[in-house]
Amino acid sequence: MDQQGSYQIKTITSHVETEIKRLKAQVDLFWDKELKHYIEYGLRDGIRIVELGSGPGFITEKVLDKLPEAYITAVEIDPFLVEYAQKYLSKKNKNRYEVLEKSIMDTGLAENMFDFAIIRLVLEHLPDPVNAVREVYRILKPGGRAVFVDNDFNMHIMTHPHVPELSELYDAYCQSRFAEGGNPRIGRELPGILKEGGFSKVDFEVISAHSEIVGEEIFLKSEGMSIPAKLVCDGFLSSKVLANISVGWRNMFKSKKHAILRQLYMAVGEKLS
Ligand SMILES: C[S@@+](CC[C@H](N)C(=O)[O-])C[C@H]1O[C@@H](n2cnc3c(N)ncnc32)[C@H](O)[C@@H]1O
Q1: Is the distance from the beta carbon of residue 22 to the nearest atom of ligand 1 less than 6 Å?
Q2: What is the C-alpha to C-alpha distance for residues 5 and 125, in angstroms, rounded to an integer?
Q3: Which residue owns the Cα nearest ligand 1 atom 20?
Q4: Which of 215, 206, 197 minimizes the C-alpha distance to 265?
Q5: CATH fold of the domain at 9-154+182-211+262-270
Q6: H helices within the chain, ranges in order?
Q7: Distance CA 188, CA 176 (A)
């Protein structure tokens, strides 16, 4: 089991570009709600910010757009995504960031450097999340805060009308991620993990996106078929079950009052002064 655990962009799907688009849609799906919480927890202009497990750079981009005086250090283990983020962010002509090819487990950054840290959809993929949290704690300044955002796949997409077949998809997804050392049900454990990692004043929020509010298009973009198709390839899901899921999903859309709901779990902690 390596430090990347259960998220490697080149193996989690068969189509890297599709996965990058899915990650972007997943940022857009929750951003307005997430931002409110980041601000409430201390994100503001002019401070030193670190994003760990920054992937293609879409959260870094949003923060740079929002805070014109902020400087962000983005830390990402995958060299392909480091290069992608560097190119993507440079197109935006912003010189207020750096992208470092490092692991969250051992960033090589000096201690007490940052005021604010964002770690989004990363802990759920790591074999040793507590030591990742300890490393984030180490690089924060006293009084600094870190926000960890993750899924809990027992409470993933819910629909009206209910699509019972979706639970088979999420069970298969969980088996696959657990087999690679991740924990796709980590959402409920976040407050305990933050405390074990050294944080004080820990708080917890559930962030929701509802199709009546954000529209259904964005849900379709943030889900997609490339991960389910890979689960079939890897033997975690049968093609027959996937076909049933597609039928159930299409039938749900035929209902006039259909709705889609998804949640993310957010925990914040402070490094005591
Ligand atoms: C699901 S993606 C989330 C990307 C981004 N945070 C977002 O919300 O769009 C998980 C990211 O964590 C990165 N990652 C996995 N293990 C890591 C580690 N040990 N150190 C740093 N990044 C890691 C992956 O390469 C990937 O970019």
Answers
A1: no
A2: 5
A3: 103
A4: 206
A5: Rossmann fold (3.40.50)
A6: 9-12, 16-40, 58-66, 79-91, 129-139, 166-179, 190-196, 211-214, 217-223, 226-233, 239-254
A7: 19
Q: Give the pairing type, strands 48-52 and 114-120.
A: parallel
pLDDT tens track for 96-155: 999 999 999 999 999 999 999 999 999 999 999 999 999 999 999 999 999 999 999 999
Would you kindly state where each structural domain of the chain is located, as residue ranges? 9-154+182-211+262-270
Please state, in angstroms and rounded to a whole number, the distance separating the CA atoms of residues 73 and 64: 11
- Alpha-carbon distance of 81 to 254, in angstroms, equals 38
Structure token pair of residue 238: 């049968």
Residue 1 has pLDDT above 60, yes or no: no
> How far apart (Å, rounded) are the C-alpha atoms in residues 137 and 115?
11
DSSP state at residue 103: B
Q: What is the mean pLDDT of residues 83-96?
A: 88
**pLDDT above 80 for 93:** no
**In angstroms, rounded to a whole number, what is the distance separating the alpha carbons of residues 87 and 103?**
20
Cβ of residue 20 lying under 6 Å from some atom of ligand 1: no
d(CA 232, CA 146): 36
Does residue 244's CB lie within 6 angstroms of at least one atom of ligand 1? Answer: no
Show the tokens assigned to 112: 């007490």
